[in-house]
Write a structure and sequence with these properties.
Blueprint lengths: L18 H8 L2 H18 L6 H24 L18
Helix pairs in contact: 2-3
Amino acid sequence: MTKDNVNSPPHYNQGGIECIDYIESFLTRDEYIGYLRGNVAKYNHRCRYKGKMEEDLRKAQWYNQRLLDFLKKEKSGIQGTIQIVTDPTKETEQ
């Protein structure tokens, strides 16, 4: 199996949870959006200097797609991968 440093870097998946999911879990909405936007800017900026332009541009694209997916889930009412139940006697709409 080949190493994928863009979609699933092996050093970001230790302990049974992806690092990005852990980060999302403790940041506020605005902090998480800022984190994703910051990473897009970082990879777009440094792509010219590290000698791995294509990989860095793919990483920027990955974070941008993660931001778009987050906003799409938010718009559709889906909150991450954890469903919060306020009253277990009531059914939730999906």
